[in-house]
Description:
Layout (H helix, E strand, L loop, with lengths): L2 H8 L17 E4 L2 E4 L5 E2 L2 E2 L13 H23 L5 E12 L7 H16 L6 E7 L8 E9 L5
Parallel strand pairs: 5-6
Antiparallel strand pairs: 1-2, 2-7, 3-4, 5-7
Helix pairs in contact: 2-3
Amino acid sequence: MDVIEEKIIKAGFILPSFSAPAGLYCPAIQTGNLVFTSGQLPLRDGKLTEPGGKGKVNDAGLEEAARVAKIALLNALAAVKSVAGTLDNIERIIKLTLYVASDSLFSSQHLVANGASSLLQEIFGEKGIHTRSAVGVAELPLGASLELELIVQLKDNSL
């Protein structure tokens, strides 16, 4: 097993199997030594995670939303692996973007994103420190509570 996948297991998670896209898009594309993912939802076995994976996020659901952000992150890493071959080919995480379906007065999207950011740093160490945007939106596909995108840099020897 790959070193990064072992770290994912040590953190209490399992990297999901890569699943085919639900629409007319590519889940991840490599250009040069960068991989860009499409938005990933907090899906498990094709269904939004319960609780926390559906609906709008508010202050009462902040902790649960941060937890499901980790699930969306794992789905994004599975998409990266589908083009990189192995997560061990990742040189560093460049950027994480998180869209949060938010109640009108909710302004803690950055704290939801901390769920995914903290897991990246736990798994990748210093290479997991990244730039980030956390954006509140009115609605997301399938009624999801959040959607996450990644940009990662691959090692030169993995090209």
